[in-house]
Here is the input.
Amino acid sequence: VEASIPEPLREAWRKYSAHEFTNKDEFERELVRHIETTLARSLYNCDDLAAYSGTALAFRDRLIIEWNRTQQRQTFTDQKRVYYLSLEFLMGRALDNAMLNVGMKDAAREGLQDLGFRIEDVIGQEHDAALGNGGLGRLAACFLDSLATLNYPAWGYGLRYRYGIFKQEIVNGYQMEVPDYWLDNNPWEFPRHDITVDIQFYGHVKKKQDENGKLVASWVEAEVVQAVAYDVPIPGYGTKTTNNLRLWSSKASSGEFDFQKFNAGDYESAVADQQSAETISAVLYPNDNLERGKELRLKQQYFWCAASLYDIVRRFKKTKRAWSEFPDQVAIQLNDTHPTLAIIEMQRILIDIEGLEWDEAWTIVTKTFGYTNHTVLPEALEKWSVPLMQNLLPRHLQIIYDINLYFLQAVEKQFPNDREILSRVSIIEESHPKMVRMAYIAIIGSHKVNGVAELHSDLLKSTLFKDFVDIYGVDRFTNVTNGVTPRRWLHQANPALSSLIAEKLGGHEFLTDLTLLDKLEAFVDDKDFRRQWAHIKSDNKLRLARLIKDTTGYTVNPESLFDIQVKRIHEYKRQQLNIFGVIHRYLKIKGMSAEERKKVVPRVSIFGGKAAPGYWMAKTIIHLINKVAAVVNNDSDVGDLLKVIFIEDYNVSKAEIICPASDISEHISTAGTEGSGTSNMKFVLNGGLIIGTCDGANIEITREIGDQNIFLFGNLAEDVEDLRHRHFYGDFQLDPALEKVFKAIKDNMFGDAGDFSALTASIEEHGDYYLVSDDFHSYVTTHEMVDEAFLNKEEWLAKSITSVARMGFFSTDRVINEYADSIWNVEPLAVKD
Ligand code: BZD
Here is the structure.
């Protein structure tokens, strides 16, 4: 039933309709009102946390007013919408972003000051929303910002985890994981207890006759869990559009089932059922680029896909359109294979519930979905065991088998004399147990498949998905190179640089058209401008030095070259290469005369990142970094010439302090392994130079900024297979400089060598899969070039400015427009005031 105020009474409603505050005084009034009433505090007991809550509530009111208007507008114009399905949204803090996006940060600063608060302290109270692992989750968050900023009618759908990514503590050099319970007093979500969906699991399939005598499948005697919607408003920058992120939380269904138990006096088991239902959305899986095939993970995936699709279909059905129009109204993008079950669920809804014929339904499905792949690493490709799926989702498995049957029949027709291709492309891998290959479903069920950087998309076409290119033609496969939102990663993280650029370009328009940065090149030789540029970098380094002091106790000299590698810890990202390079540098310094030491460029090597709790080798790398830090930082012989820092609990808000503070940052994955990388873009956008391999988006960054402005090293992707092959057959020589590094480790220079033997053995004895030794020489000599370049301050500044000026391509605004044009076919919605 539509609950709507009848027309003659709407006048009264409109008269009292909520209004947003528009200046400092109105903000203060709202702030005090919230503190006194919503929070029940007073001027006698208002600390920074209460000031944060009050400020957040005041801004939340603003957002929700715009959110309401945006949703009404979108419903009214009824044009095509985009739904971005992602198991991860790594949002970080919301308050600073909301202030800047609605353009009221100055008013808030002054208002807070009037009441005795510093805005930085207030902003600093917020707990990060950390519902993601790394790049994939952060990309989804940047996409939401751009979708709203560009006025696209778009919703994100995800899971409302009770625990986000764990907090990392370093104890005696080891990573410890602490739960991240983040939901208490979160002002940014709106529970929608009226928006619920019953989700089925287990049970079995019955064939029944419908009223026309047709046999239809029906999923019966399933367990039911309830999905409850929680909405998070997503404000665009400089626009009234405020989109929605809908996160589903799991709850025991309040169906008959429970009542029966209650009535039978089985209270305990009813409560246990409730807890087991709530487990579904309890915790984010902390693995990045690894799938372990756990049943609960599959439950999460289906729970979220089914709830989201039910919601999308419900919205579509209100328009009373024919089903054939569904793809003209709805585009659904799959962030990796995690939401692949949405394809199956859509087909199930259409054939089992809505009564469409198979072919008609499948045409609608494939026109609706697009699939983004983020990795070629084999251990990250999702596969689910057939018995597991049979048990949990019996009807879906049948549909998967049917899709596979029709698909293989078509392939057989197309390649009549090729038996091999059928087993290669089959959705079902004929192993023991049989496995469902999710990426293949995603390809077969989508009209477009994209990679996230040029090299990555090319590799998909030439290796992993080659057969599918032969089957469907190359047009189904495309590239959309990643980006970052310049609002968070320049304007918010680096306000001083944003102001300086605005001063030179005559306004902040570059924040919504990043290509305007190219106008900065005209100022490269301007002495005054260079001084200001250098000054801002120094200040940002000081800010990071303070964070380092506060969190590690180490004092670093901000004049040193800041060399930063922050990202998830993974062998393919090669933090081990970096720390071996640091040890090499340390040994070199130790062997120098006093005279030689005077020529050394002082350096701070900064690391940060989480290891998946079960990823032993990654944890060993963290341990080694911390042990090296303990030795190097306490060696008075070395002093400021070298410092090693591991920043605990790297997250989005720390990244906002770290990215503007680099002189150089490291993006040094084995060529061909990193999909794109996005922190490379954040660092360059903030005036840092980078050292990197020819991998992921490094290649396109080089193309844009010029190869004189980046330090590239190492083997190329095309050589990797051959090198691995040769290692495998014993053709392997440990690099001599690396051998010395290993010797130092084995001589217990950094504590018990046994702690690190797996790490050195993986290189010396087990084939050096990530080519650390092969790239070591090139890596070390390239770092010598970095030192050399850093000595020439003016040249360095010119490189920094020129690079920023040429980064216009890497905005997620460009990325979203590409998806909109080439995959979604959606238009922005014009917004009037
Ligand atoms: O996605 C990352 C890639 O490794 C990066 O190269 C790329 O830039 C970004 C964005 O496209 N992938 C991930 O972050 N992947 C995960 O976090 C992940 C999480 C769960 C399961 C599998 C992978």
